[in-house]
Write a structure and sequence with these properties.
heterodimer; A: alpha+beta; Ubiquitin-like (UB roll); B: four-stranded antiparallel beta sheet; 1 helix; 28 strands
């Protein structure tokens, strides 16, 4: 099961559940987390479902550069970290 | 009655109360977070704050007890962008809420990148006003101060429900007579010094920095434009330039007296390429005769080494027409009780001020 973890910076706005999900892609893992807390979606994705400009995702320590489709593959034991980009202030 | 006002800043929302003849900060909400706009408590008791979180997007919060407790509501959201869009490279993504107004039970939100949103359920949901968003003329809009165009002024008609005007930087002024079902571009008479001659008179490329409507004489509108001051006395069918404002015709804020349409206030800056007070002295220009003449009001305002800029929502007048507040992007706030004749500093060292409103 892939595990997805969100930056603690988000906790002052909404709950950030740590989710274990059988997710084959980054988007599937995010969707699993949004199922646990629907409000979280708008903090991570924009109107068009793209990763927000000042949010970054890492898969097993590698920064994801595909920010539109979010179809980077996950391994069964991948760890995904969703962080704030310092470019956002 | 105790007066109240609200100050939306780069780092929080400040509630001001006036007691014993002096304004004081009563409460701070969202400390540390950018608050781009607010709507004071409405008849229902609900008020709204629009946040623009640096990383996590635009959020709307509501309070039903005048700012003591807040809860998050859905923010406006642009619909899926059709393949083949965008117009002029503009993504259908909410950048900022730049204006919020109420008209009866309807809430309006003006945004960057240029979409107008409506809520008819007290902010529980929002819908893009597609009739304006789908105007072919939107392709000519462009950013003014931001990378994308935006709606900063929403002027509902106080008597005729469903009638409203919106001001767009840069996209002129648009009027709907049917609650947003259809729109007409109504910026005739304005001219844009920043455009080539062929485009200078085009109403769709005007940059009205701020437009306000007189409550008692709603056919009168005042506009502080990028390169001048304009006034309409026929509900935006035509606009007439006011050319004799002292010191400078550049600025962002404008306020109009709620009862006397000929009385309006402005806070001039040198020019777009130098956005500071003329000669380092902060002033308010006031006309009481529809722009035929002006007084330059200085008493109580810093008159040397001042570099404050009052942004478009940083000047407000109360329901009496005598109480004024103005605040700068430097974080200084001043008040007047006599229509601007004399000013007193309320607070220094605030975060940069985006908007202030009585209510």
């Amino acid at each position: 099961m892939a595990r997805i973890v969100f930056t603690q910076q988000l906790r002052r706005f909404t709950e950030t559940p740590e989710v274990d999900a059988p997710a084959p892609t980054l988007r599937a893992a995010l969707d699993a987390a949004f199922a646990a807390n629907p409000r979280l979606r708008s903090y991570v994705l924009d109107d068009q479902g793209h990763l927000r400009g000042n949010v970054v995702a890492f898969i097993d320590g590698r920064r994801c550069t595909e920010r539109v489709r979010l179809d980077d593959a996950l391994r069964p034991d991948s760890r995904v970290h969703v962080m704030q980009a310092l470019s956002g202030g | 009655m105790e007066k109240r006002a609200w100050v939306a800043t780069r780092k929080g929302l400040f509630e001001l109360r006036r007691r014993g003849g002096a304004w004081r900060i009563e409460r701070v909400s969202f400390l540390g977070e950018p608050v781009s706009m607010l709507l004071p408590p409405q008849a229902s008791g609900r008020m709204f704050a629009a946040l623009n979180l640096g990383h996590f997007g635009v959020k709307v919060h509501a309070s039903d007890d005048a700012g003591v407790n807040w809860h998050e509501l859905p923010a406006p959201m642009y619909p899926p962008q059709p393949p083949g869009e965008p117009v002029a490279g503009i993504a259908w993504k909410l950048h900022q809420i730049w204006a919020m107004e109420a008209a009866g039970d309807t809430l309006w939100a003006g945004t960057l990148p240029g979409g107008l949103f409506r809520s008819t359920d007290a902010g529980e949901s929002w819908r893009l006003v597609e009739s304006l968003w789908n105007q072919p003329g939107r392709a000519e809009w462009f950013g003014g101060g931001y990378d994308v165009p935006g709606i900063h002024s929403i002027c509902p008609h106080p008597v005729r429900p469903g009638e409203l005007l919106v001001g767009i930087s840069c996209g002129g002024a648009w009027v709907s007579l049917d609650a947003g079902a259809s729109w007409a571009l109504q910026a005739d008479g304005m001219h844009a010094a920043y455009m080539p001659p062929e485009q200078a008179e085009s109403p769709n490329t005007q940059d009205p920095h701020r437009i306000v409507r007189c409550a008692a004489q709603p056919d009168v509108l005042w506009c502080q434009h990028h390169n001048g001051i304009w006034r309409s006395s026929d509900n935006a069918k035509s606009w007439h330039e006011i050319t004799n404002a002292p010191l400078a015709n550049f600025g962002f804020g404008v306020a109009v007296h709620p009862d006397h349409a000929d009385t309006a206030w402005f806070v001039p800056g040198v020019a777009d390429q130098q956005r500071v007070p003329v000669g380092g002295a902060l002033v308010v220009n006031r006309t009481r005769d529809g722009g035929r003449s002006f007084e330059t009001l200085r008493a109580g305002l810093p008159q040397q080494d001042c570099y404050d800029l009052v942004y478009r929502h940083g000047l407000a007048v109360d329901d009496s027409g005598e109480g004024l507040l103005t605040a700068s992007t430097t974080g200084n706030l001043w008040a007047s009780d006599d229509g601007g004749d004399r000013w007193a500093m309320v607070q220094a060292h605030l975060p940069p001020v985006y908007a202030l409103r009585f209510g």
